Amino acid sequence: MTQGSLVPAESPSLSSAGPISGPQPANLGDILERVLDKGIVIAGDIKVNLLDIELLTIKLRLVIASLDTASQVGINWWQADPWLSADAANGSNRRALEEENRQLRSRVKALEARSRDDG
Amino acid sequence: MTADGGWVWMYGVTGDNAEPFADGVAGVGGVGGSLPRTITAARLTAVVGDVGDREYGEAALRRNLEDLDWLARTARAHHTVLEVVAKRGPVVPMRLATLFASDAGVTGTLQERADDFREALSVISARSEWGVKAYAVRPADPAGEPGHQAAGREGPATGPGAAYLQRRRAQLTASKDARAEALASARTVYAELGRFAVLSRLYPPQAPDLAGQQAPMVLNAAYLVADERVGEFAAAVDDLTVRHRFVQLTLTGPWPAYSFTGDGDGPGPR
């Protein structure tokens, strides 16, 4: 990480017009997931286990889903997101598909009834 | 608590090249607004700051950590100092809220854990951390979506209802295939970029609100890249995002090496 050998943020190779918009300013999630639960564990003189703080984890659920213990405390939205998880698609999403199926059937019935009336 | 009723906040540990910090980490306001300073022991340098008991004492900390605005402000201040330090040389970041009652506590920790710090510093020396995220996107050209052509082969619809169903079915297939394509691309991208990195690790994807993007995140990875390969690595990210149409890639960094200085207790490949 010596000076001069890093590609600066304004480097043309990274900021050129293209599919990527170049290195982006650190978003809060990127920072939190790194500073909350990473690094060598050093026992300071104040003992605050960040992951034991219940409200913190609940609030974080709204904004971040990336603590190491996310699954243990139920912060695992991506596992329930049908877009991201095959399990969710096979499980909870099935109800949605069944409902959609039912609606489509009734729509077909209505359309077919109308086309019979027209003919 | 220190004599003047405060605590010593520890940002991170660097090597014994303390000279760049002889005048403190000038120009950077740290956590609690106090200027960071350094403590040297065992040929290691701790970057620390002085914070007050009313906001950073044990009881106050428990309360404040529950306050998302406070947490965000503090996390950013902690990160900003580490970023400045990391520009001058490798630094082992401390987890947020690593606090000591006095400088002596910091000195003791440097001495007790000297070997661990030195080992961590050697891993990240002349290397930097980069973040790569992939978002699932739909290609703009619908003809390119899987499922589109398959729908066309099913023959003419026999009525408006059937045509609607057929169209809807094609959409659902395309959506499912796009998801599968995006996840497959994410896996490929993660592995491909690993070839340019010393170490890599996976984070769970972030919630869309947090990431400031509507598209679902399908990859959230960190890589430790040797300084001389950073250009190559960035070019590979560019190249992969062109080749994989179902994902949009973003690159962040260089980060202080947060993700590669741990005790090995984290999840995922290291």
Distinctive features:
heterodimer, A: 119 residues, mainly alpha, 0% strand, rod-shaped, disordered N terminus, B: 270 residues, alpha+beta, Alpha-Beta Plaits, 2 domains, five-stranded antiparallel β-sheet, four-stranded antiparallel β-sheet, 9 helices, 41% helix, elongated, disordered C terminus
Structure description:
- The complex is a heterodimer of chains A (119) and B (270).
- Chain A is built from six helices and no strands.
- With 119 residues, chain A is mainly α.
- Chain B is of the alpha+beta class and 270 residues long.
- Chain B has two domains: 120 residues, no CATH class; 133 residues, Alpha-Beta Plaits, CATH 3.30.70.
- In chain B, strands 1, 2, 3, 4 and 5 form a five-stranded antiparallel sheet that branches. A four-stranded antiparallel sheet of chain B has the order 7-8-6-9.
- The longest helix of chain B is centred in the middle third of the chain and has 35 residues.
- Chain B is elongated, with a radius of gyration of 24 Å.
- The two termini of chain B are 37 Å apart.
Give the topology.
The complex is a heterodimer of chains A (119) and B (270).
Chain A: H1 12-15, H2 28-35, H3 54-63, H4 77-80, H5 86-90, H6 92-118
Chain B: E1 6-14, E2 37-41, E3 44-52, H1 53-56, H2 58-64, H3 68-88, E4 91-93, E5 99-100, H4 103-112, H5 114-124, E6 127-136, H6 148-152, H7 160-194, E7 199-203, H8 208-211, E8 217-226, H9 230-243, E9 247-255
Antiparallel strand pairs in B: 1-3, 1-4, 1-5, 2-3, 6-8, 6-9, 7-8
Indicate the percent of residues in helices of chain B.
40-55%
Just give the CATH class of the largest domain in chain B. Answer: Alpha Beta
Q: How many E-type strands of chain A? A: 0
Poorly predicted regions of chain B: 143-154, 265-270
Number of helices of chain B: 9
The global form of chain B is elongated
Identify the biggest protein-protein contact and residues per side: A-B, 64 and 92 residues
Distance between the termini of chain B: 37 Å
CATH architecture label of the largest domain in chain B: 2-Layer Sandwich
Q: Please outline the major beta sheet of chain A.
A: none
Query: How many angstroms separate the termini of chain A?
Result: 77 Å
| The number of domains of chain B | 2
